[in-house]
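Q: What would this chain look like folded?
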Amino acid sequence: MSDEFTQAEQLGLGSFFTNLDRPVFGLKLPQEVAGALFSRYSRSTKSLRRTFLDEFLGDPELALKEVLGGSVPADDQSVALKKARAFYERVLVGYGDDSVAQLGGAHVACENISNVAANILEDARIGIAPLEKSTRYVRFDQKDENGNHLFYREPKIMASPYRTAYLETLNLLFETYSRQIEPMIEFVKRSLPIEEVELRHPQSGEPLSYREAQKDEKLKRWAETAYRSTVRAQACDILRGYLPAATLTNVGFFGVGQAFEYLLTKLYSHELTEARELAGAIHQELNQLIPSFVKRAKFSEYTAETYAATRSLAQKLVRTKPAESRKQVTLIDYDRTAEDRVLAAILYPHLRHPLEQLRKLALKLSKKERQKILDEYLKRRRHRRDKPGRALEQVYYTFDVVGNLGLYRDLHRHRILTQERQDFTTIHGYDTPEEIVEAGFKDDFDRCMEKAAKLYEKIHKDFPLEAQYVVPFAFKIRWTMTMNLREAVHIGELRTMPQGHPDYRFIVQEMWRKIQKVHPTFAEYAKFIDWKTYRLSRLQSEMRTEYKKSAYE
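A: My prediction, written as structure tokens:
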């Protein structure tokens, strides 16, 4: 039964809800008010719109003068906002009911922060959704208004005897990147001219030669625009190895209040100066957007002391040198009863048996019966967006990965799984793209990498965490990834798409080679993993993008 509102009430409510007469509706409210309203609504017999009207809005005749959607400046204290904040003061701060802080969030932009800081922010796995400036589509040869290359001047290093070497080395990396960007674009064009590129029609997907495309002016323009964009992206991909972790970037976030509170606490407790400064800057902005949700965020002795103590103990107890990294991907752990677990989980929601009993029953099934169950559960997938079901979450794999910092930034985006990385370092060596060698830039590349490595070793003795800022993207780091089979399918099918960077495509293909070896039956169902290698792999994607853009011209 829908609510009935007076004309005055309708006037007051109309600006805050997408409709007033249907059971499904959206809210056009400040995040704190929406969160408090949902929380109050969960313990009321009233409808949400009636709860808002009776307990938050105040006089409906004055509603349009309120901050909520009206013409009054956002920093004015509306009746609803005051009541919402009082609610949070009582419930969230006073009683610690964290769930209400999941009901509202905010968008925050962090500009001109280092890639070190960006990775710390993006470590947040649940409740935070970041999007970072791309090293593929954006050239990093710009300078600021003072003519300086865009990298973070780390305060401790800048106040130390390493200042001059730090500036010289990072400037060398950026100058080399900037000097080689145009020659690399021309090299990519010569290596694979548009006449030799395998094109596909952006609408039908049919094979298409450039000669055929030239017959249609619009199609010719699509192909040439996509080709130029792809060539530029390819050059940026190749040269990003020069970029140091100090490179400035921009990151935008959406997060719920609870996640922001935890993130701020972590940043306040971090050993790096940049992280602590970011905590204060982000907190200041969130205090203008969702102050009630982040009121408890502060330095945590527990977090800081635990990190410092375990780091110190690890370095005292482990004196041996790290083993040489011969494999880029090592499968450390996997479930040897995986198939029985998945079979039982597939059957479980359709029966009344306990899970333990179904696992025992799975052991007794014939090979044909087992195959039939898996087929019915997985065979109907038409493409990678048809996600396999949760039964695959019963099986886990842990990989130890060694790969360059550039590819790590891409795989780091998968936040639902469990990842743990070691500090950025130069001790594992670096990757040299084939195109760097073929274009005649290997000597420059090696000279830059060696200079950065020597500086890293010097700084590391006095400032081990701050030394990370010197590490170029070409250097390898080590991290672990623990994921269930469902996530492994997602990563495998997403990160091996043709337009993906060849470095991370190889890592993910290696992961699936390991899975194939221990669980060949499951590997058959990850049927949208692309095992091929490509040149100018993003071209088809760029052509589709140009085709879509033209629809709006």
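The first strand starts at residue 105 and ends at 114.
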